[in-house]
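User: Second chain of the day. Same drill as before.
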Amino acid sequence: MPGNVPNPIFFLQRWLWQRNVRDALVRNILVWQICITLVTLATGAVTSPFGSGGIWVFWFGCGGAIAAWNFYALAKLVQNLTPKGWSVSILVRLLVSFNIRLLLSGCLIFGAFIWGKAPLSALLLGIASLLAIITIAGMKKALKKPD
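Assistant: Same format as last time:
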């Protein structure tokens, strides 16, 4: 970026590093998911008074935020637990925390769909955007030529 304009990607990378997301691939996936989520939330919020397209984009961003939250929490938990080795207590902690997040995510989606009148397609595609980013990042890493 030219001049003294700060690079928001760098700030997100640093912010995630400070929160112990050490794997570069996981950090890149999270950075892109957060960027897509923030852009769609802002775009949807600004354009929603002008038509239903903006509302759809806003709810897409909400689905993306739910996906980013789940991926961030799961990545941090696995990353911090696995170096110590696997045990029954670690597996139970992973399963319990994952299922609690899954239940909360389901409640958020249900609430947005029922009470917020969110289009289900927007919420589900927002969640699926994380899968697209993971696929693209994985393919990019797999196809990268060794140095």
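The longest helix spans residues 52-81.

User: Great, on to the next one.
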